[in-house]
Amino acid sequence: MRLIRYRVRPDVAQILSQREDNVDRIRWGSVEPGGYGSQLSRLKVTEFESDPFLVSGLAPQPTGQKWDLGQVELLAPIVPSKVVAIGKNYVDHAAEMDSDVPSSPLMFLKPPSSVIGPGDEIVLPNVSERVDYEGELTVVIGKRCRNVAAADAGSVIAGYTCANDVTARDLQKSDGQWSRAKGFDTFCPIGPWVETGLELTGEHPEEVGVSTEVNDEIKQAGVTTQMVFSVAELVAYASSVMTLEPGDVILTGTPAGIGPLSDGDSVTVRIEGIGALTNPVTVE
Prior knowledge:
Blueprint: E1 2-8, H1 10-16, E2 27-31, E3 44-48, E4 62-68, E5 72-74, E6 83-87, H2 91-96, E7 106-110, E8 115-116, E9 122-124, E10 131-133, E11 135-141, E12 157-164, E13 167-168, H3 169-175, H4 179-183, E14 188-195, E15 209-214, E16 217-223, H5 231-241, E17 249-251, E18 259-260, E19 266-271, E20 275-283
Parallel strand pairs: 6-17, 8-14, 9-20
Antiparallel strand pairs: 1-2, 1-5, 1-14, 2-3, 3-4, 6-7, 10-13, 10-18, 11-12, 11-17, 12-14, 15-16, 15-19, 19-20
């Protein structure tokens, strides 16, 4: 299942406004599987009665309303209470950063205010001279949990999505810690939906491709089996430190190939089995 958070497009909402109050409200639902290119816009959206992450353990209830995907505007599919991120979790990326691979997960936090959705603008702050893309597989937590064993990680995961750990690289180097470099508004695009059908925590986790394109040119390409610490290990590690809530996310690290973004760029994080997250880039 592909879980989404969305609004009805303004042109569609204008038609509905005569017969529905609060037509521009945020809604939740799922997108049927399949489709590519222009066919995506015709995929059907099933609307839910409420946010599925607020009814943990219960099946989402449809309202009976259906839309074409082209009739809605996708938002960030979740609103996390915290964004947990992992640094240098691919050997080649650690090498390009002139760094050793950490002996345990290198964990940091991005503020929820950094989260934006598909199609939203990444804004380059004027205090930075270099802002980089970092495409990452992202774990979405489905149950409130603490001290989860790696073997049980699958039981608390709702699904997976794409994220871009946008980073002011010069500030990361100058500050020595990463809060400012990673924390600007718009520095955490997430989406387009939460895919619940992947298996990445069992004895034989799927190998999922992770790539990033800038202006349709591939800049990063890796697979999840290249991660130093697995999805299960990251869930166990993060939950040993803090309580994870439904809708919280864990960004699992980026492959090699990081590089700068410029005004007018379009950056796409593409993850096999999930889909593509595209954001335009502008300046402050």
